[in-house]
């Protein structure tokens, strides 16, 4: 069974991604590590705990970075609401975060499962960078990092050249890309357009299950934001698409090997990630030796939407089953 950690700055699309992992029978979810990004660390932790709870999943949540590596965290106006989850008073988790810190948990798992551990990062990668800084040798045995980050081959959403997760902590992203760990990138370009979930699909989910209703409510501010700014009644769920590339391999229809460089110099290019594709520069240019990373270039939208929607139907009874089990004890 694949050994997985999810590293998240939990807002509504992170929650969608967490649900996919929580319901996935093909992976062992070892733990969820959290950091500040979309919202504060504490809020992100509670959002992750609550999301797992509505899925009937009791995976432990570990708190990590409150700040990017070198900058003070600026309060960003979240497109997901002040609490990151639609401001609908949804967040009242029963369980508390674990005592162990996120970075220690990541390092423990990397040590326990050398060559096996995969990390799916749906936020800035400060926790991962801190783990690399603390023990590079142990982290070099991580099998792969799956990252929702970068604009892919399209425009950015934080600046014209930078995507939110990289922009929040480009130094951390540069450190991750410069490590030995292979990284699979789902860029922002892959995650928008036809693959978005529309308001009718969300209304359907609301009727299907507790988790479906939770996601419907959690994405309500995002839906309003998209209606106002783009005139479209859709929600983009970049983290859910990134999660699909990692745990639903049949969704991926295109990928290309790359060498990546992330600009972390303050200025207009801060957070830009440059992809060097094999054979894409003149032969006379100095050759790069290593293309250890990959960019996912296409996904099957129909398979994604079908799997995403049916997951709520198939797991509709999960929280109830868990409650019954707890009562029996
Ligand atoms: C990324 O930024 C956040 O708003 C989302 O959760 C996603 O991880 C998209 O740029
Ligand atoms: Ca996120």
Please provide the count of β strands: 11
Strand order of the largest sheet: 3-2-1-4-5-6-11-9-10
- Uncertain segments of ≥5 residues (pLDDT<50)? none
Largest sheet: 9 strands, mixed
Helix content: 25-40%
Q: Give the tally of structural domains.
A: 1
Strand content: 15-25%
| N to C succession of SSEs | EHEHEHEHHEHHEHEHHHEHEEEHH
Computed Rg: 19 Å
* Mean pLDDT rating: 93
Ligand list: beta-D-ribofuranose, calcium ion
Number of helices: 14
Here the CATH topology equals Inosine-uridine Nucleoside N-ribohydrolase, Chain A
Q: Please report the distance between the alpha carbons of the first and last residues.
A: 28 Å
**Could you say which structural class the secondary elements and strand pairing correspond to?**
alpha/beta
Which CATH-level-2 architecture?
Alpha-Beta Complex
User: How would you describe the shape?
Assistant: globular
Overall CATH class: Alpha Beta
> So, the CATH homologous superfamily?
Ribonucleoside hydrolase-like
């Amino acid at each position: 069974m694949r050994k997985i950690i999810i590293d998240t700055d939990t807002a509504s699309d992170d929650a969608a991604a967490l649900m996919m992992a929580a319901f996935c029978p093909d992976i062992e979810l070892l733990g969820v590590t959290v950091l500040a990004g979309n919202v504060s660390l504490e809020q992100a932790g509670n959002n992750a705990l609550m999301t797992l709870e509505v899925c009937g999943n009791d995976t432990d949540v570990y708190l990590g970075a409150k700040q990017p590596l070198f900058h003070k965290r600026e309060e960003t106006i979240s497109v997901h609401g002040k609490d990151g989850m639609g401001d609908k008073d949804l967040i009242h988790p029963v369980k508390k975060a674990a005592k162990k810190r996120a970075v220690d948990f990541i390092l423990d798992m990397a040590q326990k499962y050398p060559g096996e551990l995969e990390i799916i990062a749906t936020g800035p990668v400060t926790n991962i960078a801190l783990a690399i800084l603390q023990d590079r040798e142990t982290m070099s045995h991580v099998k792969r990092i799956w990252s929702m980050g970068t604009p892919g081959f399209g425009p950015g959403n934080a600046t014209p050249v930078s995507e939110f997760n990289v922009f929040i902590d480009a130094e951390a992203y540069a450190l991750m890309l410069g490590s030995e760990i292979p990284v699979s990138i789902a860029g922002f370009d892959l995650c928008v357009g036809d693959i978005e979930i529309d308001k009718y699909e969300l209304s359907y989910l609301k009727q299907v299950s507790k988790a479906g209703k939770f996601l419907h409510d959690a994405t309500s501010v995002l839906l309003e934001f998209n209606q106002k700014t783009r005139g479209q009644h859709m929600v983009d769920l970049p983290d859910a698409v990134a999660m699909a590339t990692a745990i639903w391999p049949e969704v991926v229809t295109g990928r290309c090997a790359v060498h990546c460089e992330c600009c972390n110099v303050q200025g207009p290019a801060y957070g830009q990630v440059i992809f060097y594709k094999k054979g894409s520069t003149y032969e006379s240019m100095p050759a790069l030796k290593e293309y250890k990373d990959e960019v996912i270039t296409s996904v099957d939208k129909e398979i994604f939407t079908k799997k995403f929607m049916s997951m709520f139907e198939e797991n509709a009874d999960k929280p109830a089953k868990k409650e019954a089990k707890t009562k029996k004890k």
